[in-house]
Specification:
alpha/beta; seven-stranded mixed beta sheet
Length: 380
Amino acid sequence: MPSSLVSLVIMTGSGRDSEVERMVALAREAITLDTVERALAVEAIGCIVIVTDSASLAESLRGKAVHVELEVPGEEFHFGRRLRELITGRGMEKVFYIGGGSSALLLSEDIGHIAETLLSADELVIANNFYSTDFAAFAPAQAIESIEPPTVDNDLAWLLVEQAGLPCKELPRTAATQLDVDTPTDLMTLKPHPGVGPHTRRYLDSLELDTSHIEHALEFLTDRDAEVLVAGRVSASTWAYLEQETACRVRLFAEERGMRASGRQARGEALSLLGFYLEEVGLERFFATLAKMSQAAFLDSRVLFAHRRIWPTAADRFYSDLRQPQKITDPWVRRFTEAAIAAAIPIVLGGHSLVAGGLYALVEAAWARGEDLARHVETL
């Protein structure tokens, strides 16, 4: 039935083809449980619908005031069509969509602010990222009928603006709005953050995650004498955040943004300056050079993989992030990971989320340790 309140839709898939993918999937389930409990405390939220193919998540939600739509595992899932079915089938008027791993640090106050803002508007999209959406609230919900339903959620806000004509407001960029759990590195960046919910905290504490290199790297983010290197698909807004919110100097290599969406990766056209250097000097000298240039490095390794025209399995990518080379099947990725581990400085490996929301979370965690330095020059 239609409601004057905001309908919350959370979509959480299982994705458990390997042990390490199961690790990430279970983390997203824990995040979903925390998000549900926080949302239940928000007066502006009416019905809560969870779409998942995980029987264990459905069981964990039993007894809570939510509706669970249990999908069949393994069947093809189309995000846009499924969201449209929910909206029309349940008569939703104002919708807040959240991807299952994107709300690990969203508090009840954050959810409430978004929902209340949407309630006060007739036409509006509120997105965490206009160009690559992880969560978005929009009204009227029927605007979903005016767009080509996207296969994944990243295009949702853009389509609602470009095709449905809704105005858009983008949320301030913080760890809470930018971190989306996609890889094991995201779990390691979450672990030191004080804003993690109880379900997620228990799950993270149950894992044997070696975060010593991340803990070491955090020290330099609040060190005026340090230089930190960040490389990969880094946006201008992330660079600006680092310049304002860290005490260290930042050496940045921004390369191949949009390589997947543009098709450059699939066509073998992705190119990286660091990748060319790595080819010239080899793995050991590559990491030795990074150690001469910085005290810690955060690398979006997927750009280097794409430069080499390889795309390892999800399991190999994830085991590389976890610094477990003995479990990696691809010989070059194994040697790459071993060289990163042997480097003289902490090297944090990950995907796009590491050099996006992950950095926001790590910077917040670094300052939460109690440092009391001015982070940037204040503007007039």
